[in-house]
Design brief:
single chain; 218 residues; alpha+beta; two-stranded antiparallel ribbon; globular
């Protein structure tokens, strides 16, 4: 219960920061605009790494306006890495999720709120018992608007005092995303009774739903 209260306080702090940014602009720090939209399909993408991609996928699938979530690998040098190669921690890739969304229903800023609200961004190369560079907290920005928003809200979150330790989230240019093997896709929905789903993903998902209840799909 104590952890849930802290989690809800964290989201409230970040939500307040997002809502009040326009009033806090200065000559040197302006609120970034929304990201560039794909004019042909009217969709956009966001790519985040915040621990095991099974958890990340399950969380972002809940949000209204999110059309598709794909588990995969990003941030490394080798093309088309396998899960086994990434698990060694030697390829430089992070387990990541590519989120396709409708910007008319959900903003990139809200996705950032969900990103930071669904994992601990102060633990370097670790989320819970998942340890290694492949589990690092990272945002892969696809354009300068995403870059500005990510940096802006990371700074606001740090200033909010939600965490005692520095936020170590890496904000880096996107280069490539490699879709993971088929058995990783839609993992929680297809393997809900598996031990990792039951003891790790399910409790995390329940906390997320309580904190983001106004942003979930009906």
């Amino acid at each position: 219960m104590r952890q849930l209260k802290r989690y809800l306080l964290f989201v409230a702090m970040l939500g307040s920061s997002l809502a009040s940014c326009a009033q806090q602009q200065t000559k040197t720090e302006k609120e970034p605009g929304d990201m560039t939209i794909n004019k042909d399909t009217k969709t956009a993408t966001a790519i985040f790494g915040n621990g095991c991609f099974w958890c990340t996928e399950a969380i972002f699938q809940q949000l209204e306006g999110v059309l598709k979530v794909e588990s995969g690998y990003s941030g490394g040098a080798n093309p088309n890495p396998t899960y086994e190669e990434v698990c060694t921690g030697l390829t430089g890739h992070a387990e990541a999720a590519r989120i396709t969304y409708d910007p008319s229903k959900i903003s990139y800023a809200t996705l950032l709120e969900a990103f930071w609200g669904s994992h601990d961004p102060t633990t370097l190369n670790r989320q819970g018992n998942d340890v290694g560079t492949q589990y690092r907290s990272v945002i892969f920005y696809e354009n300068e608007e995403q870059h500005k928003e990510a940096e802006f809200y990371k700074k606001k979150l740090q200033e909010s005092g939600a965490y005692d330790q520095p936020i170590v989230t890496e904000i880096t240019p996107f280069k490539a995303f490699y879709v993971a093997e088929n058995y990783h896709q839609n993992y929680y929905n297809q393997n809900g009774s598996a031990p990792y789903c039951t003891y790790v993903i399910k409790p995390k998902l329940e906390k997320f739903k309580k904190a983001f209840k106004d942003k979930l799909k009906h």
